[in-house]
Design a protein that fits this description.
single chain, about 300 residues, four-stranded antiparallel β-sheet, 12 strands, about 25% strand, disordered N terminus
Length: about 300
């Protein structure tokens, strides 16, 4: 995964006219640009059902059809405004005969794994990526299970991170891996703000992808090792406006919180953050994660 982290770092450096390397992993290195991922072998696609061609008129006057996928009685059609060179004004229509189409604004792409049964529920999925524009923000993901009526089974909140599908435990049900940037800009500049890995797993009872990071602690081993070394090293690059390196120790604390080990998270904070506001800092961290829809409460 490391080869993808540096793509985002290089992009930001180029945009800002800077070439200095950051010696330790940062939030920017960890964000997942969803359109450029090596997602591994996908599940077998469902057969394409015949559908009538697109209507002769666009959903909004002047729009053009940019992409189209036909999947098992559904059509995904991505419409764009030719006057918008960046694509913020795109509109995705998820269409089915004799039904109102589902509309998704700011759609950036129809994911390549659309048409696969990612959650092994017997129905193909439609995966739509969104992008609202801006220096870092915001990427989102919608996943619909294409049943008799489309069922939304995942909406990743818009954030600085994209996401990717991986079958982490070999059960033929794909997890969705992303990052939570809930503390971006809060204690330090964006380039060194933390972004903690999040694993969403399909819950067949709820028929939703739900946060399930504590079920996959082995997926955090590398991050924990890197963030421990970072927190024990030179934290001068992480000094915030208050004169403390909160962003230098926060990634490790968040790793332990998100895998369901709050006691270990608190212990590491006390060990690595020798400042008088340590307990108020801990309270702010707990309050922050409890408000995130990507955190699994304990």
């Amino acid at each position: 995964m490391k080869r993808f982290r540096w793509l985002a770092l290089v992009f930001l450096a180029a945009a800002c006219g800077q070439s200095a390397a950051i010696p330790t992993p940062t939030a920017l290195e960890m964000l997942i640009p969803s359109a450029t991922l090596d997602v591994g072998p996908p599940p077998p696609p469902f057969p394409v059902a015949a559908l009538p061609p697109p209507t002769a008129f666009a959903p909004v006057t002047g729009y053009v059809l940019r992409d189209e996928r036909l999947v098992d009685g559904y059509a995904l059609r991505l419409w764009g405004n030719p006057a918008d060179s960046i694509g913020y004004d795109n509109l995705l229509l998820l269409e089915q005969a004799n039904a109102e189409p589902v509309q998704i604004k700011m759609a950036s792409a129809i994911h390549p794994q659309t048409g696969s049964d990612l959650n092994n529920d017997g129905f193909p999925e439609a995966v739509i990526e969104t992008y609202s524009g801006g220096a870092h923000c915001c990427f989102g993901t919608f996943i619909y299970s294409l049943r008799d009526e489309p069922l939304l089974i995942l909406h990743k909140p818009e954030s600085n991170a994209g996401g990717q599908f991986q079958d982490l435990n070999g059960d033929d049900i794909y997890e969705f891996v992303t990052y939570d940037d809930l503390f971006a800009y809060r204690y330090c500049a964006y380039a060194v703000s933390p972004a903690v890995k999040v694993i969403l797993a399909y819950d067949s009872s709820a028929q939703l992808y739900l946060p399930a990071s504590p079920r996959f602690p082995e997926q955090y081993v590398q991050e924990i090792a890197e963030h421990t070394a970072m927190a024990q090293g030179n934290l001068s690059d992480f000094i915030g406006d208050d004169g403390t390196p909160k962003c230098g120790v926060l990634p490790l604390v968040l790793d332990y919180l998100y895998i369901g080990q709050p006691e270990k998270a608190h212990q590491e904070l006390l060990r690595l953050y020798p400042y008088s506001d340590v307990e108020s800092f801990w309270a702010e961290i707990l309050d922050g994660v409890q408000q995130s829809s990507l955190y699994t409460p304990h």
